[in-house]
Amino acid sequence: MISFGAGYYILTAYFSIFEKKMKRTFLLLLSTLAYFFSGAQSFTMKTPMPTARFMAVSAAIGAKVYVIGGQSSNGPILNTTEEYDVINDTWTSRANFPTPILQSFACGYNNKLYVVGGCTGSQSLSSVWEYDPSTDQWTSKSPMPTSRCEISGALINGKIYITSGWSSSYRTLEIYDIASDSWTTAANAPIGLMQINSGTDYQGKFYAIGGKNYMNTLWYDSVMVFDPSVSSWTLGPNIPQPLYAGTAVSYNGRIHYFGGGTALSLSASNSHFVYDTVSSWQFGLAMPTDLYAPTSVRVSVGEVQKLFIFGGKNANNVVSNVTIEYSETPLNLPSINNHDASVQVWVNPGQDQLTVEVKDYSRTQLKLVNINGATVRNEAMIQNEHRMNLHGLASGVYVLQVNQLKQSGVYKVIIP
Questions:
Q1: Using an 8 Å Cβ cutoff, are 297 and 65 in contact?
Q2: N vs C: which end of the chain shows fewer Cβ within 10 Å?
Q3: What is the number of other CB atoms lying within 10 angstroms of the CB of residue 87?
Q4: pLDDT tens across 13-53, in order?
């Protein structure tokens, strides 16, 4: 990675890029064939949950989502389990969880649902429960070595990773092997926090995002990353705003972080931050409502991924029963293959221009597309070097397509 001053970067991968100082525009090269740039973002309000709640957990099995526990608007901690049918947008009551519970971790695996830890008010739990939708029954499994609440967790390759939360050893990472119903421990997390709630899996790693300390005096923008392949932690790029009790989920090749508390007074946020390893953190489309301690889940319906957000509490301290679907309309980009390292792209500082240089300019078409999929520039190269005027374009993210007779290249262009 080459830096050209505060906030401006070029990442190089398949094409070489000239090292030019940039004052207004900077360009990030896509660094993976599998990268999927998202187009228009939207939130859709769906059928509300029958029970308003916050600090609940959710998990998906097939096209069904299960929301468990949480706290109601008038105070009691719930053992309510409700099933959401993603296809038909309907809710059904299911067998109650064995005990009232909040701020646990839940995931779906091999057509079963697992709920780990949590608390019943002031008492932290070490319990692990398995739910079978086919019988509508809960079964107790081997407990976690450490009782803890307000935890961060992720499911990766049949194992559940748990860290942080209320406990005597809050930095401990404990790993539950679903197949053998057994627990092991691994390296301690770099920071011991509570109310992270926003763990997720991403590219085979466990991400624990945000949180606050045990004295209720600090809240964090930290991102802790555990890599199971080397059994060690690193600190990733910080999320743009210190938050706790938000919810995170990987979806369409990126991590999405929604809502959370922004101050120790439990004020709620409608923030939406998006992370990938190419562009780090970006601001996503803000949620239609502010939510403290919602829960979110990714659902696979055939080959289609869906993302849903449930419940939470707003800035007016009102507990919500919202069901919100978040979606992205993808841009139709050409495939990336047969790269020619002679293609060079750079920006012209202070001139609002992009320069593209190729060895063979014949039949080379340049197309710049905005986040809504609209083409804002479509120009043919008539010589080896071509300058594209960016003047008048709104700030935001664009995709530059360099289309040649036998190959194409795709760049992401960011105009601050």
A1: yes
A2: N
A3: 11
A4: 223 222 232 323 334 333 222 233 445 788 999 999 999 99
